[in-house]
User: Fold these one by one.
Assistant:
Number 1:
Amino acid sequence: MGILVEKDEDHSELGRRISADLRERAQRSSKQEDYDGVEDSEMLRNTSKTNRFSWFWFILFFLAAVSLVIIFIVS
C-alpha cells in the first residue's frame, strides 16, 4: 500500500498533515525526561558491566595487534 504525492512548489495537504503530526510527536517525546532506552531496559536488569576480566580483553587485543605486526614484517 502506498500513497502517491505529486511534487509541487507548495506543500500538499497531506504533507502539511504529516509534518504537523511529526512535530507533535517530537514535542511529546521530548517531554519524557526519565526515559533512557538502554539503561531502563528490562533486558539489562540483573546484569553487571565488565570490570573483573577487562584486563583479559586488553591483553587479547594487544596480542592480536602484535601478531598482525609480526605477520606483515615476516611476509
Number 2:
Amino acid sequence: MMHTEPWPWSLPVARRADFVRGLRSVLEQAEGLEVAGWETSCRLAPSGLRPDRLLLGFSPVGVAPRRLQALPAALGMPTALAVAFAAAQGRATHILLALELDHTDLEIKAYLSFGSRFGRVGSTLEADLLPAMRGYKWHPSDPIRTRTSDYCRLPVAARQLQTTLEQADGVPPAVVPAYGVAAFAVREALARRPYWYECDFLQVTEQGSERSSCCVRLYESGLKVVDLQPAIEALQKTWLLSDAQHCIERMGQRPLGWMAVGVDRQREPFVTLYCEATRADARQALSFGTD
C-alpha cells in the first residue's frame, strides 16, 4: 500500500526550520484568544501543487490595544507594510494570520477584514475607501518581496454567479479551466441545495501587480473537497498535473470553505481550495518540526 503523508503537511516542508519558526510565530499571536476559524488550503497550478498552507482568524474586540499594536513587529512584518497595517488596523472587524511555503521560500500573511460579511464598513467614506479585506504579505528571508492584495465584495446571487463563472467573459484562455472548477462547485452546490443563498463573491487585485482573481465562499454549500473530483480530474489533464489526485486523497473529507481562481502576479493560472482545519493540524506540523 502506498504511504500517504498526513494532510495538510508534506513532511519535508513541516521539518524545515523556517516553516516551523513561522508557524510558531503565527500561533503565538493568537495564543489565549478565541480563534474564529482555521483553514488549510492547497493551490493547484501548471507548476504543481502547493499544499503547505494554514490560516487562522480572530476578532480584535476585547484584545489589549498594546497587543494589537505589537502584532506587526511580533510577526516580523517589513516596515512599509507595518505602517500601512497599523493605519488600517483600528477599523478591522477580524484579523487573519496565515503562512505558506511559496515554492522554496516561506511567506507570511496578515489580513484585515473590514465590516460584516453582508454589511458595509462603518461610514460611507470608509466604505468607499476600504475593500472587504486587505492582505499584507511578505517573505521573512527577503523583506523587499512584499505584496498587498485587496479583496472587494460584489453582490451576486448564486445562479448569476454560476453563469458568470461558466461564461468567464474577458478571462485569458489559460485561466478558463480554473474558472471551470469554480463553476462546477457552484453548480454542484445549487443541485444539492437549490435555495443556497449564502454564496459570497470577492474580486481580488494586487497593488503594483497584474494579478487578477476571484474568490467564492462555499462554507454553507454542504460540499466537501471530494465532491470536486470530476472537475479536479479534468484540470489535471488540462494542466498536466501529475500530483493533483493527492489533493483529493488528503483533503477529500474536509468541508469546502472557499475557492480562489485566476492568475497570479507571474500570470500563472491557479485554483486554490480552502477547507476547514483545526488547531490539531497546527500541532501536527509542529510535531514534525525540528526547529
